[in-house]
Amino acid sequence: MFKPSIASQILRVASHGCKGAAAVRSTSRLALIINTTTRNIFTTPNLNANKRDDKDEDPFKKSSTAASAEDTAEHEGRYARTDESVRVEYPEDHEMPRSPIVQGRGGMHFKRTLASFSLEGRVSVVTGGARGLGLVMGQALVSSGSDLAIVDLNKEEAEEQVQKLVAQYREENPGIEIMPKVTAHYADVANPDSVNECITSVLGAHGRIDNLVTSAGFTENFDAISYPYDRMQKLWGVNVDGSYLFAVGVAKHLLERKAPGSIVMIGSMSGAIVNVPQPQAPYNAAKAAIRHLAASLAVEWAPAHIRVNCISPGYMLTALTRKILDDNPELNRQWTSLIPQGKMGVPEDLMGAVTFLLSDASKYVTGADLRVDGGYTLT
């Protein structure tokens, strides 16, 4: 930073139009050479304006990766654009691959860790919890001591996962006396009445709610001009309206109890960047909305000690993603080539993140967007 005295010397020299260069020195820094040509101090003169008019002679105007003139249109920006020819076929809900319970990730251990990461005595709700990222995050919460309510549009699948999750917990914790309570509940997250009924059902089963993870969501692959409007409405309803409705419903309950709580909304790195090559503008916009919704609610509910944060995953190898990439090996190559860590994430990479944000370990963290993307959004 310039000291005021030094800044005034600079302006004085410039205003007198001195010839040559004026050296302004501070007591502890090298001399700063000032070009004395009078000009706006917020602009930078082009010292080479009269020397290099031909860009071929100016190395600073040439790209080391530039293609030949005839190839420029084809090459430049190729990997930074969406491509309407890229089609990612997402199966219907009943054809979606089932997600396995993660093996050997919980259980008793004797490694020292902070007690503030424990979720003992808490009741957590995870929407979209019957498969994919939601299921794995729900398992993390149970492993950390929380009771769990799995909410899903497919209640039958949710009930199956409850049985598997409890069985896995018993296997990993032999001789355990107090088992976590894990239940399954139906909800159409985009329907206000269904959301209210679900919250009532959870309260009936568990007595209270302390934490919420809004993981229900989906993506589709249409270019913007071809995107069916009714599909876009459905996407927005599940991803955005569903997160809002559940957050408000749980917040009302916490406010009535005068109890603190933590809400984690699952966004996506797509809320901060534009994915390539697949076109998915409405999904990207929806996830950007989730990120800002979390920040806005964090400010609104902070006086009531209700924290709201966002987790933005990058490309994750869920059962669905693996199926898609098996059919599109070139897409896999393109995605991973843009990730600094050189690989896609796995659902287990979110277990620590969600546990941190729901536990007292993050009690002074609210309105944050935690990106778990291998560095994708940094480049």
TrEMBL record:
Residues 50-61, 72-86 have a biased composition (Basic and acidic residues). Keywords: NADP, Oxidoreductase. InterPro entries: NAD(P)-bd_dom_sf, Sc_DH/Rdtase_CS, SDR_fam. The keyword Oxidoreductase applies. PROSITE patterns: ADH_SHORT. Residues 43-86 are annotated as: Disordered. GO terms for biological process: mannitol metabolic process. GO terms for molecular function: mannitol 2-dehydrogenase (NADP+) activity; oxidoreductase activity, acting on NAD(P)H, oxygen as acceptor. PANTHER family: BENZIL REDUCTASE (PTHR43008), DEHYDROGENASE ARBD, PUTATIVE-RELATED (PTHR43008:SF14). Belongs to the short-chain dehydrogenases/reductases (SDR) family. This is D-arabinitol dehydrogenase. The lineage of its organism: Eukaryota, Fungi, Dikarya, Ascomycota, Pezizomycotina.
